[in-house]
Amino acid sequence: MTTTTATPIILPADWRDFLALTKPRVMTLVVFTGLCGMLAAPVAIDPVLGFTAILCIALGAGAAGALNQWYEADLDAKMKRTARRPLPAGRMDRQSALHFGVGLASFSVILMGLAANLLAAGILAVSILFYVLVYTVWLKRRTPQNIVIGGAAGAFPPLIGWAAATGHVATLPLLLFAIVFLWTPPHFWALALFMKSDYAAAGVPMLPVVSGERVTRTQIGLYTIPMAVAAIAPWALGLTGAVYGLVAAIATLVFAALALQVSLRTTGAKDAMRPEKRLFAWSVLYLFILFGAVVIDRWVFA
């Protein structure tokens, strides 16, 4: 008597599955910070070229998301939060995701070079490669510092937007890069605290899984300090006006207060809404507020 092994059935993917590969929620913040970097630049860019550059940033972010899901299909299948994505749910084969991601990445970089300039295209290419090769392939499965180093991938859009408009890089976009880079650890560690079991099930060495909640809470508080310094620095250095300074000070105080609650919370304590969830929710809004203030400040003091 012979036995046969059932072959998983891959259902036909539709446009919604390809859209899901691009991680549209993450893309929203990436596009917004890139747009703010462009609008904060001291020169005006042609609206059509500006739209094209932002489209390239969106396509590049989508490509990185697709390649991330292609490589991590096995991890996604083990996590409740990601199990319904197209690949682990069996709605798409991995080769389609790979081709889609590579094609999208190549198109976005080439179009950026043609529509804007080679510097913006080069930074876009570096951001995609950094997210896929450095963060996804190298860091995520190997070290709890994955978010610390890998955070640079999500910090490139303001640089790209500025470079697309000006053709060079200056102090202000570098500070915007630093804000996102330093914001990433407390933002993702707050998520990891209430998704700890999911990461543990998938074998991802996130800080709460490897070092425990107490260490993670302490690190969230510690990383908030340099993030706060970076957030105030554009105003302190005279690169923005009082509008940004006031908004940044208030928003950062709220962030710091929530981070302090997370740091001081006793492991295992019960409450209606854990402070790490409040911090995670505010951290997303925080970047929108901060980068929006940069643009408004420029318009007011231009």
UniProtKB/TrEMBL annotation:
Key words of the record: Cell membrane, Heme biosynthesis, Membrane, Transferase, Transmembrane, Transmembrane helix
Which coarse location class describes where this protein primarily resides?
Answer: membrane
What is this enzyme's EC?
Answer: 2.5.1.141
Which EC class, in a word?
transferase
* GO MF terms held by the record: protoheme IX farnesyltransferase activity
**Top-level taxon:** Bacteria
> Which spans of this chain does the record mark as coiled coil?
none
Q: Where in the cell is it found?
A: Cell membrane
User: Sorted alphabetically, which InterPro entries does this protein's record hold?
Assistant: Protohaem_IX_farnesylTrfase (IPR006369), UbiA_prenyltransferase (IPR000537), UbiA_prenylTrfase_CS (IPR030470), UbiA_sf (IPR044878)
Give, as in the UniProt entry, the pathway in which the protein acts. Porphyrin-containing compound metabolism; heme O biosynthesis; heme O from protoheme: step 1/1
Swiss-Prot/TrEMBL catalytic activity: heme b + (2E,6E)-farnesyl diphosphate + H2O = Fe(II)-heme o + diphosphate
Q: How does it sit in the membrane?
A: Multi-pass membrane protein
Q: Any extra detail in the entry?
A: Carbon 2 of the heme B porphyrin ring is defined according to the Fischer nomenclature.
NCBIfam families reported for this sequence? cyoE_ctaB, PRK04375.1-2
Q: What does this protein do?
A: Converts heme B (protoheme IX) to heme O by substitution of the vinyl group on carbon 2 of heme B porphyrin ring with a hydroxyethyl farnesyl side group.
Query: What name does the UniProt record give this protein?
Result: Protoheme IX farnesyltransferase
UniProt lists the gene as: ctaB
